[in-house]
Amino acid sequence: MSEHREPSSNADEGNAGVAATQSFYTRWAALYDAVATHTPGVGSLRERAVAALDPAPGDLVVDMGCGTGANFPSLRERVGPEGTVVGVDFTPGMVARARHRIEREGWENVHVVRGDATRPPIAAADSLFSSFVSGMLADPAAVVDGWCDLVGSGGRVGVLDLGRSTRPVGRPANALFHGLVFAASPSKRGAVTGAASALDARIAAAQRRLRERCSDATYSTHALGFARLGVGTVD
User: Fold this and answer.
1) What is the pTM for the complete model shown?
2) Which of 72, 85, 103, 216 is most buried when burial is the number of CB atoms within 10 A of its CB?
3) Angle, CA of 139, 34 and 66, to the nearest 5°
4) What single DSSP character describes residue 116?
5) What is the dihedral of CA 131, 135, 137, 138, to 10 degrees?
6) How remote is the C-alpha of 170 from its chain's centroid?
7) What is the pLDDT along the chain (235 residues), one digit of tens a residue?
8) Helix (H) or strand (E) holding 104
9) What is the rounded CA–CA span in Å between residue 119 and residue 139?
10) Which CATH fold would you assign to the domain 2-233?
11) DSSP of 18-30, one letter per residue?
12) Are 81 and 106 in contact (CB under 8 A)?
C-alpha cells in the first residue's frame, strides 16, 4: 500500500503548491500590475525584448506567463491589426486583470486564456515570448523545449528574466535583489540567498536550452546586468 500512498502524497503536495502560488499572485495582482507597468525602465526593457523577438506583421504570438498583460501593447504593435496576440497565465487574478486591460483598450486581436506554461493550451504559434517566468519553473529547460516545439522550425522564441547581476556596477545591489526575490516568492521556505541562487540556476538552464535549440540565438544583459534576454529562431 505504501507504493500507492507516496505518489498520492506527492501529488497532494504539488496541488497544494500550485494552489498557494495561484492564491499568492491573485492576492497581489493589483500591486504586480502597478510594478509591471509603472516601474521606471521596465517599459523600455519590455519594448527592447519584443523588438529583439521581432514577430512579423500578421503573426500569431504567444505571451507565455503573461501576467496582467504588460507586454500586450508592444506585441500587438509588432504583429499589427492582422496579427494575433494570445496571453497565457495560470493565475485567476492575473488573467482577470489582463482581460480587463484588453476590454479597456478595445483590442479585438488580443486574447488571454488561463493555462499552464508547462502545458500550453495552444497547439501552434509563429513566435513565443516569456518575461520573468523561467525562474519559477521546476524544469525550465524542458519547458523551453516545449515552447520551441510549439513554434516549430523557423519560429521565434524570446526569454526575458531577472537574476542577480554579475556586472561590477550591479553587484552592490544584489543584496536588495535577494530581498525582492524573497518578498515576491509564494513560498518563504529557505534562505533568501538560496532562493536567489535557485532563480539564477533556472534562468541559466532556460537560456542554455534556448541556445541549444536556436543556432542563431543571441544573449544580452540589461538594467545593470539584472535583466537577461535570450532570443532565437528554432532550428
Assistant:
1) 0.81
2) 85
3) 35
4) B
5) 170
6) 22
7) 333 333 333 444 344 445 555 555 555 555 555 566 667 678 889 999 999 999 999 999 999 999 999 999 999 999 999 999 999 998 888 899 999 999 999 999 999 999 999 999 999 999 999 999 998 899 999 999 999 999 999 999 999 998 888 888 888 777 776 666 655 555 544 444 467 788 899 999 999 999 999 999 999 999 889 899 999 999 9
8) helix 92-105
9) 12
10) Rossmann fold (3.40.50)
11) HHHHHHHHHHTHH
12) no
Helix (H) or strand (E) holding 62: strand 60-64
For the beta sheet containing 84-89, the strands, ordered from the edge strand earlier in sequence to the opposite edge, are 110-114, 84-89, 60-64, 127-131, 156-162, 227-233, 218-222
Listed in sequence order, the residues at least 6 apart from 60 whose beta carbon sits closer than 8 Å to its beta carbon are: 79, 83, 84, 86, 124, 125, 126, 127
Q: How many helices (H) and strands (E) does the chain have?
A: 8, 7
What cell does 54 get?
A: 521581432
Burial degree of 50 (CB within 10 A; 0-12, 13-18, 19+): buried
